Amino acid sequence: MFGLFKKKDPVEKLQAQYKAVMKEAFDLSKVNRSAGDAKYAEAEEIQKKIDELMQKN
Asked: What InterPro entries does UniProt report for this protein, alphabetically (predicted)?
């Protein structure tokens, strides 16, 4: 219950976004390979942002 009002830090938000984009990329890769590759590229950009934030801490 106490975690209900806890704010997520930017790294946690980006990690959740990365996970969602990777799942979407996997699902797209089964149907449309080029769209799946584009989503993987988007996920890599998110991962770079996560790495940059981790370096600052």
From this structure: DUF6435
Rounded distance between C-alpha atoms, residue 54 and residue 46, angstroms: 12
Give phi and psi for 53, each to the nearest 5. -65, -35
Contact between residue 21 and residue 39 where contact means Cβ atoms under 8 Å apart = yes
| 23 closest CA partner among 41, 46, 39 | 39
Higher-confidence residue: 22 or 9? 22
* Nearest in space to 53 (alpha carbons), one of 18, 1, 3: 18
Residue 7 has pLDDT above 60, yes or no: yes
pTM of the model: 0.84
- List the domain boundaries for the chain: 2-56
